[in-house]
Amino acid sequence: MKTDCTKKSGAAESSLDISADEFCAMSRRNFLVMGAAATAGVYLAGSEAVARQSGRTDKSPGNTVANSLSLLKDVDIYFPGDERYGSFLEGLFSREAGQKKPSAIVCPKKHEDIMRFVEIAVHDKLKFTVCGGGLSSLSVQTDMICLALNVFYNKVEVLDRDGCTIVKACGGAKVGDIVAILKNHGRHIPVGVSPMPGLGLVMRGGIGHLSRSEGLTCDHISQVNFVTACGDNFLLDANCARQYLWNAVRGAAPRFGIVSEVYLDTVPGTKVTVSRLTADTGMLNGWMENADKLQDSVSASFVLGSDSVKHMNPVFYGYLVHQGSNENALAELSSAQKNMTGDAKLSWLEEAHVVDYAQMPPFDVPLRDSGELGGEMIPVVKSYLVKNRVVKRMGEVLLNAIRTAPNQFCRIDFQHMGGEVRRIKNGSVFSGRDADWNVVVTGFYYAHSLPDEVEKTTAWVKNIMHRINAAIVGVYSVEIKKDTPETKHELEMAFRNKLSLLHRLAAKYDPYNLLSHYPL
After folding, report:
1. Please, are residues 435 and 473 in contact by the beta-carbon 8 Å criterion?
2. What is the SS3 assignment for 72?
3. Percent of the chain clearing pLDDT 70 (strictly above)
């Protein structure tokens, strides 16, 4: 094994598994839209140009996937027709991924299983995907092997390193697991707005309620145990020899290899202060105008969406969070809420109060009614980073968009950035640090929809981003899809002058294009 530093070993059993069924209990609609905001929470793989010797002499292209994978020992493998194969696909959060037909599903239990799998994949030129959180439509592809880290390889362990508390997460862990376990140690890390994503979101950003005060999730990564797509194993950190790769995995890991383990620095505290409200959509303009005046310890994210599952009834849903949980934090958040809302009439207000960071309320418009969804729904998502000084003059564009949405499940999220995100300079390829908001536009269509209905939803999402183009300073790479008319432009916006480097790294660390389904 090649390492740049001393490799730490050991893994602890995690008693946590935030299943889709458990999360769904929060409400069927909430389950739907929270996952959509992180649909691409996946960390796939890709990397180096020297194949390892496997000890086999038969290199015939006629080798079947089953024959190739028979060399994996003590690893569960599901093939088409196996009951576990179907159960795995049905259990994925992303229904797009669940409808694919992988050639096999490989479920590693330890790091060495991943190493051996990649060795076989390189030898036989087997294309594969990696499934971590299972939110991404890219986590499973038809006729490719799915490396399912989320089945067994999902442990989380809290460690003491030189007097500092860090957390080690294996490749299949979810951010909800990490935050919940850290709570028992009086610590946390800033994460996105949903507990469901895996390390894909961690590695490529992690924009959430504490980003303004503590930075992105990826800013807390201290080390990555990384397996390239050609089988090399590197322990990457700020002091390693391969700084170019260390910088690249923090922002674009899925294209170069498999994140086997990630180590993150933690932050003291387990509680935050929250205030939520709903109001008429007329709240929008004043909210964005006042957002620039907030202190960095406060975030003011919001959603334009419907508070009814029966018909479109647009409302404004504001979600204020203070990093602290003492009396000063309560007073400061109460004052911030009053300044943000002014004299506007509120439909509903949840006054500032302290909550566990591991159990924050969902970032979803509270519903005033209930009902069935009417069938399985598929999301269309775009996530762009924008400047407030420009987008705050486009309020009418956003309001018209939500009023004319294809259905009542469509939504426009503004996740608050700025503050610490803007100040951090750590070499990662994450771009758009000068943005004030991550704008996530999510349209939905039914799985049984006719083509024109699908096109209507897709056009609605794209049109919004086109209309606010002047405000856009970056693209959040977790939502970039391959082979769309806008893919090339989105990659350029996501990585800017680092894109050519990433292309070179992809060629170097994935010369056989085993991970070429990923858009880079």
Report:
1. yes
2. coil
3. 88
Residue 338 lies in a domain: no
Band of pLDDT at residue 375, cut at 50, 70 and 90: confident
Coil, helix or strand for 233? strand
| 28 and 98 together in one domain | yes
| 490 or 133, greater pLDDT | 490
- Beta-bridge partners for 146: 105, 129
Q: Is residue 165 part of a domain?
A: yes
Distance of alpha carbon 265 from alpha carbon 38, whole angstroms = 23
Q: What number is the average pLDDT over the span 115-141? A: 96
Of residues 67, 96, 34, the one with CA closest to residue 364: 34
Residue 235: closest CA among 52, 50, 508, 7: 7
- φ, ψ of residue 477 in degrees (nearest 5): -65, -15
Burial of 171 by CB count in 10 Å (0-12 exposed, 13-18 middle, 19+ buried)? buried
Residues 125, 202 within the same domain: no
What does DSSP say about strands 314-322 and 298-306: parallel, antiparallel, or unpaired? Answer: antiparallel
Q: Are 123 and 54 in contact (CB under 8 A)?
A: yes
Q: Taking residues 103-127, what's their average pLDDT?
A: 98
Report yes or no on 469 lying in a domain. no
pLDDT at 14 over 80: no
Of 237, 269, 301, the position where a domain reaches its end is 269
On whether residue 430 sits in a domain, the answer given is no
Q: Which CATH number is 135's domain given?
A: 3.30.43.10
| Tokens 């959060």, residue located | 93
How far apart CA 323 and CA 339 sit, in angstroms, is 18
Mutual angle of helices 487-495 and 499-509, in 10-degree steps: 110
One domain, residues 215 and 131: no
Distance separating alpha carbons of residues 138 and 478, to the nearest angstrom? 10
Q: In angstroms, what CA-CA distances link 220 with 186, 195, 384, 431?
A: 17, 17, 22, 16
**CA 1 to chain CA centroid, nearest Å:** 29
Average pLDDT rounded to a whole number, residues 316-342:
98
User: 164 and 60 in one domain?
Assistant: no
Residues 144 and 256 in one domain: no
Q: Is 139 exposed, middle or buried (0-12, 13-18, 19+ CB in 10 A)?
A: buried
pLDDT band at residue 376 under the 50/70/90 scheme: confident
Burial of 401 (0-12, 13-18, 19+ CB in 10 A): buried
Question: 119, 152, 185: which is the final residue of a domain?
Answer: 152
pTM above 0.85, yes or no: yes
Q: Which long-range contacts (CB under 8 A, 24 or more apart) does 62-70 make?
A: 63/124, 65/103, 65/104, 65/126, 65/145, 66/104, 68/120, 68/123, 68/124, 68/126, 69/104, 69/106, 69/120, 69/145
> How many domains, in total, are found in the chain?
2
Domain span at residue 124?
A: 20-152
Q: Where on the phi/psi map is residue 334: left (φ > 0), alpha (ψ -120 to 50), or beta?
A: alpha
Does residue 432 surpass a pLDDT of 80? yes
